[in-house]
């Protein structure tokens, strides 16, 4: 593949994207990106959007006349669902790392349609990939609970050293690094913890979440944010390993991704929404307050990832395989016809969820107390059971019993 095949309108990607006029965001474009779930997004140094999906493809989207168009596609074998991607811009061209279901990482480079390398250090699905700010290292996190650190500059050599970070006991879902602080990394896991590493040595463990930790965002060398399936964002102080603040979502049952842009945070999650949060610093003491400011509902059942584009538009990856582009600029927003269609799909989804939701009475405390359990047909009964337990502060040993109860009441939940 010659790089000249990727051409696009000029985009100023030299400065960080910012979010302004929150209430003005509306649908701009809907990209029919993947046959099934659009799982992950990345941006190139020029502002090109890249998406990876459950259909085993990686799609490149370039701007042409203010609209995104498909410029390139990498196709993987059908069994190799794409779960994560990470982009690196190097002096000799770009690299794209693609994390796949079988634990392998395919590496693409300028000038090639096929992977130039395939790494097989992880043994199970690669949930997340991360390239640090200076593109010196790439990290992978996996369902095998391990993290590997790859030296990008040495990958073309006949031999190089890959560091293995062992410590988490369940799947690793998020990775982060600190600008201008080499060899220091954060990892987040389904074991409900966040770990701080110096190379492959654990130097701190942060415990505060009650469920899977799915997202990380570094604020400074001393502070970071974490978010996950308990529906909270935690603000951490690194030197003391303490929680500075806890903030609950108004939109998602679970938070799947988190993006920081200037004074705002974007999160995606289980309910097919995009939530805007404002980060406010108190005048005295400088304490950070995070408050939900706006929620945008989308037609997809879940939203897996979001990226702020160089022009402040926002790309959201949906479980329906689409990528939704939202804009706060009236000139880039969709026609009234497309906006009406978008709104109708959102309304239809809301109605469908209501019609496909069944409610059961669940007896606890030896039958002395009955609680309502709401299950939406077609969704994972395990996630429903976890949410029910969390909402009602029940012991986790009820989990398997509740899952089996749902399957008995709704036979298709067993499929």
TrEMBL record:
Keyword set includes Lipid biosynthesis: no
Domain PFU: 323-415
GO MF term (any one): ubiquitin binding
Alphabetic keyword roster: Cytoplasm, Repeat, WD repeat
GO cellular component: cytoplasm; nucleus
WD repeat placement: 165-198, 206-246
Domain of life: Eukaryota
Protein name: PFU domain-containing protein
Species this protein is from: Caenorhabditis remanei
Higher taxonomy: Eukaryota, Metazoa, Ecdysozoa, Nematoda, Chromadorea
